[in-house]
């Protein structure tokens, strides 16, 4: 932030995280600036309360936004539903803040709306810049979570939110800061979007390289044969086209609900199956009794096995590797154990190929939550080269994938740096650490020069 000037004079705000604020700024709790409106939910079984014309915002709606504005919601309610549950409509240009699971997601309404009990609406009492306070609250997530209370989940009460103190300038300066941040964050967001697009393209190319290698091989001059599967096309004539079940055992997880403890044996569920290797760093823990029940029936994961997700987040696959402690399968996953002439790493690449995605998409069931049956996984069509050729393909893929992964990781780090800069810029501007009162939009500056 070196290129921006500081204010001439500061004073102690008396708030530890905020520190000093410009001398002419005020320090006021939110309740003096905004009316705080609690949300509510109509009775779920009453058809007359639902699918109406009223936007009904939930934390889930806020968490999915890519913009600061919200005008639509996943669920809507009727006037009867609104009247039944005791909440109120709030006008456009109102800040909606998630106050549970999680605390801190927010947006500004573009039209009249209401919320469920997981959100609170901040309706301005005076001539304030809503956008300024949107930016202010966007960098206050840590502080707001510290004010949350609860054992099952954190919840921010109206009293705690209302007492949250902000250092604020006058309305004109609020607008100036908001305009400055609109311009500067838009530039950063454009750069982030470009990096996200690059990551998407790199992943697509990586996917194409994997899919081609595991269905066509490395030799462009090899004799080919018709696979007998329309969407698969031709494959090397010495490769085997078969069903997955002829090479592996697929065992579903044990359908019991284990108790969780602060210490114990980790469970691999969907969250642990996201990369090339099973990651237990954030796994839930159970005790020896439940562990023994969960591994019953040939369900004990062994090195070289693959964990495959089959519910909610469907089709992710990760390898059980040597660095893992003993663990059991959690929910929504199955265990794939190789029984003949197949490399674990090769199968892992195949399970991440486009060929499997085609079959997965046709086999998935469920409207709200997607899932795939274990029998459908067993009946995946696979193409298997001789074991020696599998090893050659793996060596070639490892080199190519490493290059793509390196480029992807670099782009991810660039995004993280830009996001950190974005947050730091917002924080500096809304808390008065930099003075942007003399900032001019580049277009306005050009107009003045031309005059």
Automatic annotation (TrEMBL):
One of its GO terms (biological process) is DNA restriction-modification system. Belongs to the type-I restriction system S methylase family. This is Restriction endonuclease subunit S. Pfam families: Methylase_S. The keyword DNA-binding applies. Residues 22-198, 236-402 form the Type I restriction modification DNA specificity domain. Keywords: Coiled coil, DNA-binding, Endonuclease, Hydrolase, Nuclease, Restriction system. It comes from Acinetobacter terrae. GO terms for molecular function: DNA binding; endonuclease activity. The keyword Transmembrane does not apply. InterPro entries: Restrct_endonuc_typeI_TRD, Restrct_endonuc_typeI_TRD_sf, Type-I_RS_S_subunit. SUPFAM superfamilies: DNA methylase specificity domain. Residues 387-414 form a coiled coil.
């Amino acid at each position: 932030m070196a290129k921006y000037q500081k204010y001439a004079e500061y004073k102690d705000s008396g708030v530890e995280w905020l520190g000093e604020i410009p001398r002419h700024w005020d320090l006021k709790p939110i309740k003096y600036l905004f009316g705080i409106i609690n949300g509510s939910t109509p009775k779920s079984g009453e058809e007359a309360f639902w699918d109406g014309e009223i936007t009904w915002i939930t934390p889930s709606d806020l968490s999915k936004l890519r913009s600061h504005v919200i005008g639509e919601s996943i669920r809507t309610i009727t006037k009867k539903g609104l009247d039944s549950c005791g909440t109120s409509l709030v006008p456009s240009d109102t800040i909606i803040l998630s106050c549970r699971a999680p605390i801190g997601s927010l947006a500004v309404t573009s039209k009249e709306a209401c919320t469920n009990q997981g959100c609170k609406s901040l309706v301005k009492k005076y001539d304030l810049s809503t956008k300024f306070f949107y930016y202010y609250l966007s960098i206050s997530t840590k502080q707001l979570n510290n004010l949350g209370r609860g054992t099952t989940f954190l919840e921010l009460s109206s009293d705690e939110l209302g007492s949250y103190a902000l250092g604020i300038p006058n309305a004109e300066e609020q607008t100036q800061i908001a305009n400055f941040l609109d311009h500067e964050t838009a530039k950063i967001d454009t750069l982030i979007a470009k990096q996200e697009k690059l990551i998407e393209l790199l992943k697509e190319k990586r996917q194409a390289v994997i899919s081609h290698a595991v269905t066509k091989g490395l030799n462009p001059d090899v004799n080919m044969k018709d696979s007998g599967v329309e969407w698969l096309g031709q494959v090397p004539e010495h490769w085997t086209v078969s069903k997955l079940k002829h090479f592996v055992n697929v065992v579903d997880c044990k359908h019991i609900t284990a108790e969780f403890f602060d210490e114990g044996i980790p469970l691999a569920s969907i969250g642990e199956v996201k990369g090339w290797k099973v990651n237990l760093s954030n796994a839930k823990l159970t005790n020896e009794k439940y562990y023994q029940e969960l591994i019953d029936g040939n369900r004990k994961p062994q090195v070289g096995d693959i964990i495959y997700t089959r519910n909610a987040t469907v089709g992710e696959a990760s390898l059980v590797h040597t660095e893992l402690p003993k663990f059991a399968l959690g929910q929504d996953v199955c265990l794939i154990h190789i029984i003949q002439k197949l490399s674990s790493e090769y199968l892992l690449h195949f399970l991440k190929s486009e060929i499997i995605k085609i079959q997965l998409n046709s086999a998935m069931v469920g409207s709200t939550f997607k899932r795939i049956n274990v029998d459908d996984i067993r009946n995946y069509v696979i193409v298997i080269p001789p074991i020696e050729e599998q090893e050659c393909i793996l060596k070639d893929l490892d080199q190519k994938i490493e290059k793509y992964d390196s480029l992807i990781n670099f782009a991810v780090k660039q995004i993280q740096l830009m996001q950190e800069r974005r947050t730091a810029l917002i924080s500096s501007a809304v808390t008065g650490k930099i003075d942007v009162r003399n900032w001019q939009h580049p277009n306005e500056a050009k107009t003045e020069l031309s005059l």
